[in-house]
Design brief:
- The structure holds 2 protein chains of 2 kinds.
- Helix content of chain A is 37%, strand content 25%.
- By secondary structure, chain A is an alpha/beta fold.
- In chain A, strand 1 and strand 2 form a beta hairpin.
- Chain A has 8 helices and 10 strands.
- In chain A, the strands form 2 sheets. Chain A has a 6-stranded mixed beta sheet with strand order 6-7-8-3-9-10, with helices on both faces. Chain A has a 4-stranded antiparallel beta sheet with strand order 2-1-4-5, with helices on one face.
- Chain B is α+β, with helices and mostly antiparallel strands.
- Chain B folds into 3 domains: 190 residues, no CATH class; 253 residues, no CATH class; 148 residues, no CATH class.
- Chain B has 18 helices and 9 strands.
- A 6-stranded mixed β-barrel of chain B has the order 2-3-7-4-6-5.
């Protein structure tokens, strides 16, 4: 069963001042199955961020169709969009996007509290997700009191606490050191395996991408190629590097 | 490029960043200029010299205006510097010396200051001419106060402003030396610190404010310690307010935070945490706003109600259009002639008020001075029908309770009397019932029972005296033996007493100095002349305060909107709808705005209770105060709505 369908999505940015047009996405189509861990890769300026914005309903495509859970997300109004984001999607961002006015726990329960869930079930769910992500001992700390990895795990906890149909991760390891990256990616894999969470992750880091089960490569606003993981993670990592060198960009990741 | 040019270019090309700072300094200049052009106006000066009190009032007002401009500019300046820290850091990073950056900041400040003067002085001079017209109306003065531009007013404005501005520039200079580069770089990120509070102080603040209230309400007029007590009340309440905003409010929210059922519900989590986060940096500001608003509300309510009362109070001072001590046929004839010569006034009522002179002694009433001298006090004896006639035909039949007089007086027997004491008590109706009165009239002594009493006389300020109203039968008996022991007043009413200026002037010439004479017109003009300027200053300061407090709150909120923008964009990403965002903003700003207003109203209500106690209690007075408070609240809430609108616009627009 497909959780998400992206059909012929185009995105054109035009500057009103100069009249210049730039095509960020020219024609992109792909689908994501339930329980899949999909990676989206591509060099800088390839359009991966635009693509993520479009599928996360933050931006609207110029043309094309996006359906999530069988429901089209194009032409939803403000209110429906907010509801949709809250119920169906979970976000993990590169810069965590935690509120510094709230403790980690309060940050995590934010979506539930907005949905006006009762205190008992809120507490129960926090316990569960924080145990999975290994942050149950720092729940009452504020974001500025914990490390980047811990912040990102809290953000991941916030993303999954509503049991979303789709988790969207935008360069989640971008600001983390290698140890924290490994931990977080391990957590995501675990979520993917145990909870059957569907994850779409945008990254330019081959190591992070090697945790995915399938990767699509985007170049100049078009789908360039895709590879699937069959063997071990090590083999997949090498395959990704090979593909990247063909697609171009991100060569600095070899270092 | 020289530093001078760089500074000039910064201001010129980046004016948008300087706008709010510029507006604040402009407002300060504007207010100073308005005030000083009124202060130095030649008419006002000559007018003031006649009444020393007006000068004192102006001096006090000048002090308040200066202090307030200083606070205002100080606040605007620190906000401005906070926003500039990053720029300073950049200059520093590029290798500019601290001294040079300081000079640059100084130049920028000077440009803005000069610009504010260039715009503010003419604007203030122009507005002051308009305000002077208002003052003339307030004082009901015939002489038109001309607005002359006095060079001293410009000089004083520039002087005061320069001093305030220089102090702030020096402070700006100090910041550059004080901070390390790393602190400057992170200035924008540096949020308000996690609020700390003490439960003990929270309780203490409550005790301070409420004991201040208690002392104020229990305070007696005219006591020798009154000044000290008033000072104590001010210190208690103001300090209490600051401690309260720094502790009690935070404590209250912390308690709310503990109640997870409420705290985790819907938008409360975001709203409350946002307020707690913001409050520490804001609590001193909020307390200041509360105190200033309390002063403003009190001043506005006091002066407005006082002004509204002035007109209504005139009959208390002079119940008839004209009243004078008669008893001389020649005088009566010449007065009659003068009145008839002035065709513009129609006589609607004319009467002689006949009273017998006497003296008396009672247990509980010690005469007009309240001192127990064991000596009899002078008094008038009046007949019940005379009393009723006066009320029926004078200004006492007015439409408010200010001029209301007791009409249901209780005199059932001949040896009973209705006693009018001369006293400053608010409500003294029936106070002396049951007291015995020993009175001496024309050598004879009588014993009477006081069956009813009041403190409101019916003869006006000039003729007021302790009065005993007796039954008509008893009065007639007394009259027979006291033909040579009478006081006769003649009273006239005109159709429009406010047009009787010429009659009053002519009469004051022919009525001899040893005979008392009073007129409605005279009373009216003198009370407006005397109090009009107080009222004007009160309203001027009140408006000044509401404009600036509202402005400060507005600027503070939109600055925070820029800081909160990122937070709301995160929330929007995780699915907070626009409607929910609006609800949170309405609550968040609502709290910030309403909290100081609430305390301001509470403080000023207590102050006004004391005022009504000292003046005199009247339903009309309370109505006026209510109206003024309502107007204040509405204006203040307009700033709130404006802030919500701007805040929403800022946090929802795409970066």
């Amino acid at each position: 069963m497909n959780v998400m369908e992206v059909r012929n999505v185009k995105k054109v940015y035009s500057s009103k001042l100069s009249g210049n047009e730039s095509q960020a996405l020219r024609d992109v189509s792909f689908s994501v199955e339930k329980g899949e861990f999909l990676g989206i890769m591509g060099p800088s300026g390839s359009g991966k961020s635009t693509l993520l914005n479009v599928i996360s309903t933050i931006d609207t495509p110029t043309s094309g169709a996006v359906t999530i859970g069988g429901k089209s997300i194009i032409n939803l109004d403000e209110n429906e969009l907010s509801n949709f984001r809250r119920r169906k999607l979970g976000f993990i961002f590169q810069d965590y996007n935690l509120l510094d006015t709230l403790t980690l726990k309060e940050n995590i329960i934010l979506p539930l509290s907005l949905a006006k869930l009762d205190v008992m079930s809120i507490e129960e769910k926090v316990k569960k997700v924080s145990a999975v992500l290994g942050i149950d001992n720092i729940l009452n700390k504020y974001p500025y009191e914990v490390s980047g990895g811990q912040k990102q795990r809290a953000a991941a906890a916030r993303a999954i606490i509503t049991d979303p149909q789709l988790i969207l991760a935008d360069e989640p390891t971008g600001a983390l050191d290698s140890k924290s990256s490994t931990e977080l990616l391990g957590n995501l894999t675990e979520l993917n395996k145990q909870n059957e969470a569907t994850i779409v992750m945008v990254t330019h880091d081959a190591f992070a991408a090697s945790y995915c089960s399938r990767i699509i490569f985007i170049k100049d606003g078009l789908l360039d190629c895709e590879i699937e993981r069959n063997g071990s993670r090590k083999e997949f990592f090498n395959e990704i590097l090979k593909t990247l060198s063909l697609v171009g960009g991100a060569s600095n990741d070899f270092v | 490029m020289t530093l001078f040019k760089l500074g000039l270019n910064n201001v010129k090309h980046n004016f948008k960043n300087y706008v709010s700072y510029f507006i604040s300094t402009l407002v300060s200049v504007f207010i100073l200029m308005i005030f000083y052009s009124i202060y130095y106006n030649s008419n006002i000066q000559s007018f003031s010299s006649e009444r020393a009190k007006v000068v004192v009032v102006f001096k006090v007002a000048a002090f308040i205006v200066i202090i307030f401009s200083a606070i205002f500019i100080f606040y605007a300046n620190s906000f401005f510097i906070k926003n500039k820290k990053k720029e300073i850091a950049l200059y520093s990073l590029l290798g500019m010396k601290k001294k040079e950056i300081g000079t640059l900041m100084f130049f920028e400040n000077i440009f803005l200051g000069v610009l504010a003067l260039i715009v503010g002085v003419p604007l203030g001079a122009f507005t002051s001419s308009f305000l002077l017209k208002l003052l003339t109306i307030c004082m009901k003065s015939d002489t038109v106060i001309e607005s002359t531009l006095d060079i001293r007013s410009v000089g004083m404005t520039i002087l005061v402003f320069t001093v305030i501005f220089l102090l702030n520039s020096i402070k700006a200079y100090g910041i550059i030396y004080k901070y390390k580069l790393i602190e400057l770089m992170h200035a924008a990120k540096e949020g308000e610190k996690k609020p700390k509070f003490s439960k003990l102080l929270a309780v203490l603040s409550l005790i301070m404010v409420s004991s201040g209230y208690y002392i104020a309400i229990k305070m007696q007029l005219g006591g020798s310690q009154m000044m000290y007590k008033a000072l104590l009340v001010m210190v208690l309440v103001i300090a209490g307010t600051y401690i309260l905003f720094n502790n009690l409010i935070i404590y209250m929210f912390k308690i709310f935070e503990k109640n997870k059922r409420m705290y985790y519900k819907g938008e409360n989590l975001i709203g409350v945490s946002q307020i707690i986060y913001r409050i520490k940096g804001n609590s001193n500001l909020l307390a200041t706003i509360a105190v200033i608003s309390a002063v403003a509300i009190t001043a506005l309510c006091f002066t407005f109600s006082f002004y509204m009362m002035l007109g209504k109070m005139v009959p208390n001072g002079s119940p008839f259009s004209i009243i004078y001590q008669s008893g001389n046929e020649n005088l009566n004839k010449s007065v009659e002639k003068v009145i008839n010569d002035h065709k513009e006034n129609k006589v609607t009522y004319k009467a002689d008020i006949v009273m017998i002179n006497g003296s008396g002694l009672t247990q509980r009433y010690k005469g007009p001075f309240g001192k127990d001298l064991k000596a009899p006090f002078d008094m008038f004896i009046m007949s019940a029908s005379e009393y009723k006639d006066i009320i029926k035909n004078s200004g006492f039949k007015g439409d408010t309770d200010i001029t209301e007089r007791s009409t249901d007086i209780q005199i059932k027997k001949e040896n009973q009397c209705f006693f009018i004491e001369v006293s400053s008590l608010n409500s003294g109706r029936g106070r002396l019932i049951g007291d015995k009165l020993n009175t001496t009239i024309g050598g004879e002594t009588y014993k009477l029972d006081i069956s009813d009493s009041d403190v409101k006389g019916v003869l006006g300020a000039k003729f007021q005296k302790t009065t005993m109203v007796v039954s008509d039968i008893f009065f007639k008996q007394l009259l027979d033996t006291n033909r040579n022991n009478l006081t006769v007043l003649r009273a006239y009413n005109f159709d429009n007493p406010l047009k009787s200026k010429n009659v009053v002037l002519d009469l004051s010439k022919i009525i001899p100095k040893d005979r008392s004479f009073d007129s409605y017109y005279g009373m009216y003009i003198s009370s407006y002349n005397l109090y009009g300027s107080y009222v004007f200053i009160g309203i001027f300061l009140g408006i000044l305060f509401i404009v600036s407090t509202g402005g400060i709150m507005y600027y503070k909120q939109i600055t925070e909107a820029y800081e909160d923008k990122n937070r709301y964009s995160i929330l929007s990403k995780i699915g907070l709808s626009k409607k929910e965002t609006l609800r949170i903003v309405v609550k968040q700003l609502g709290f910030i705005f309403v909290m100081p207003l609430l305390f301001a109203i509470l403080h000023s209500t207590v102050a006004l209770i004391v005022y009504t106690k000292f003046a005199f209690f009247s339903k009309y007075l309370i109505e006026c105060i209510g109206v003024m408070m309502g107007i204040y609240v509405v204006i203040y809430l307009c700033y709130y709505l404006l802030s919500v609108k701007s805040y929403m616009k800022i946090i929802t627009e795409n970066s």
